[in-house]
Amino acid sequence: MPIRQLPEDLINRIAAGEVVERPASVVKELVENAIDAGASRIVVTTAAGGKGLIRIEDDGHGMDRADLVLSVERHATSKLSEDELDDIRTLGFRGEALASIGSVAELSISSRTAQAESGLRIDVRSGVRTGPVPQAMNRGTIVEVKNLFANVPARLKFLKTDRAEAGAITDVLKRLAMANPAVHFMLNGSDRSPHNWPAVSGTGALEARLGQVIGDDFSRNAVPLASARHGVVVAGLAGLPTYTRANSLSQFYFVNGRSVRDKVLVGAIRAAYADYTFRDRFPVVALYIAVDPGEVDVNVHPAKAELRFRDAGAVRSAVIRAIGEALTAAGFKASTSVADDVLGAFTTPAYEATAPTSFAPMPMRQSLPFSGYDRPMGAGSNNPFSPAFGTIDGLNEPSARIEPEAAPALMEYPLGTARAQMFDNFIIAQNSEGLLLVDQHAAHERLVYERFKAQLASGPVASQSQLIPIVIELPEEDCVRLEEAAAELERFGLYLERFGPRAIAVRETPALLGNSDIQGLVRDVADGLAEWDSIAAVSDRMETIIARMACHGSVRSGRRLRVDEMNALLRDMEATPHSGQCIHGRPTYVELKKTDIERLFGRSR
Fold first, then answer.
1. Residues 6+ apart with CB under 8 A from 526
2. Is 285 within 8 Å of 322 (Cβ atoms)?
């Protein structure tokens, strides 16, 4: 086949494939144009997930006749004063969006400047422009896009459901609202619940806008970022290490006012929180980076969603330092080393008893400066531990519970026999070779996970009915995802149904979980569904779902266990594969051989 020049209409439709990926892409391009035009109020209206209608109304500067006619031509823009791409200070700059949209949809643009007596309107159908004609309107611009991809059926059939596309539009507008707190955003339509984010200004404007979009809960559980290093200014809010989500969808990155996805920033967040959060948990972060426009290239992605830093190392360093300083100021510090923690958990025993009834306490001795060290403290002294002195709150509460001598046969088990429970969280066990410290929550988490897998392999997980259904309030989009996935979740023993527009009622829960944190479990599953973006992925992500269920259904830290319960946990660990680590990758027990303990006391020399 010989080479031929493609017709203009086909060229525009091919170009639209890069710029207009889905209805959310159209909303992004048009709202960015409104922001660049100086709008202080932007109203977005959609229908049928944006496939039927997208309407953007703003109160920006507007366009005169010449600009309006030229705006729908390819590569026509007012945002590049010179033919240079290394100093871009606007959101748009290519001049492709309107021409691309007009080639795959019915496009209408109405605009009026402050000096004009009336507005003008042009229409574009299949890349062919008509107009302009007079239009009565206020100052600003109104853009309507109807029947998106109607003339490109191959593109239309690859779009998702109306709900999914509407959700993508909401996400795009949320990010634009977060980046522009001084602009009033409104989102309406027959396919959604309305959103209204009024403009905020002054001190605390950024925090107020993040509270509007993400929620006040985030603002209350985050620390402010304010740092400048190597020409990189870092601002925003960083969630506390204990305020995490099951995925990274709640991590937002903005560079010079542009919402982006960037591996450098993702890696910097992971590194900054490495000492504070678990591997499968993601902190909630709204990160705002300001750099010289000449130090960043935004012309590396068709949708301008990615960029490239000239000095990525400086940006990474600035972000890590800003978050580290903010978390340290809030009172959070990273541990020095795992070895120090392990050694610090063991102390020299005060005595060695041969029988419980033969113990006689030694008289306490007082050590005072410039005095003798051998003077016993009597009952009438100022000894705060003396009965005559009175009691101290909390003194009689033990930090560890010692169990009676166990049968010698138990010592031969690999994990030995339980000797004590320390801080209501760690089991101290002894076998014939040494001492073991077991994390009861991490260990039981692995056991519950393996039991879930075994039950799923033989059929649906057994469930137990709730006497009173548990009602959980969630965002509407999360409720929709859970409702659509309800049939699949029943395989895991989780039975739920819709309870109003923003709530889910849980009627049955997996029997293996017992009385666990059901609300936390449902929220984690909702986060997972949002990340996977497909109901069919529930089955494919089986291990991820049961891992989350196991985490919420395991023995919690702070629960006191009887000696038979502790030994039963040890025996189950011995019989369960992979019980040496929990599902998060943390160890479930630490073992010190007898020779290691002797070495600590210098007895091996």
1. 474, 478, 481, 482
2. no
Please report how many Cα atoms fall inside a 13 Å half-sphere around the Cα of residue 115, on the Cβ side: 3
Cα separation of 356 and 333, whole Å?
Answer: 42
Bridge-based pairing state of the strands 53-58 and 140-146: antiparallel
Q: CA-to-CA distance for 79 and 89, rounded, in angstroms? A: 8
Q: How would you class 367 by CB atoms within 10 Å of its CB: exposed for 0-12, middle for 13-18, buried for 19 or more?
A: exposed
Task: Specify the pTM.
Answer: 0.60
Helices (H), ranges, 362-468: 440-458
| R_g (Cα) of the chain, nearest Å | 32
Please confirm whether the linkage preceding 408 is cis (ω < 30° from 0): no
Return d(Cα 128, Cα 141) in angstroms, integer.
20
Cα(289)–Cα(303) distance, integer angstroms: 19
468/528 Cα distance (integer angstroms): 26
Check residues 378 and 471 and name the one with the higher pLDDT: 471
For 186-243, the pLDDT digits (tens) are 999 988 889 999 999 988 899 999 999 998 888 888 889 999 988 899 999 998 877 8
pLDDT surpasses 50 at 498: yes
251 CB contacts (<8 Å, ≥6 apart)?
266, 269, 282, 283, 284, 285, 287
Q: pLDDT of 377-396, one tens digit each? A: 444 444 444 444 444 444 44
**Range 433-444 burial, b when 16+ CB lie within 10 A, else e:** ebbbbbbbbbbb
